[in-house]
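Here is an idea for our session: we take a single protein and study its fold together. Which protein we use is up to you, so please pick one and set it down. Once you have written the record down, we can walk along the chain together:
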Amino acid sequence: MAKRGKKSAASLAVVPVVPGKRPEPPAELTEAQAEVWRAVVQTKPADWFTDDSHPLLVAYCKHVVTARQLGAAIDAFSTALLTDDEHVKRYDKLLAMRERETRAVLALARSMRLTQQSRYDAKRANTAASQTQARKPWEA
């Protein structure tokens, strides 16, 4: 039964899932975040991400991009400046911020079953690892 009255902004932001078709990124995402969305969605079956998981995927994409931005800021930080207390505090703050983003990304990835851990139980992971042989340098 259809609801009466005005539709909420949240209901308008949800992109309906078409069976067999991967969901497109919502308009609220930046281009960098939309690229993460597309990359993640392509790794799973078309019906993996249902309407109820879209907010989690949106949050995941935003955290991934923020973590990348923080990583770039950390990489650009000159370690030669770490002799000054103010620079050490700023560097430490950036590292703490990146750690928080990484934890958020990991928690969201686990909840959406995106991690390798979710693909294998302990026995299958051990079997797969034991069957994988490292290539010898001269075989490269």
About this structure: The first helix runs from residue 9 to 13.
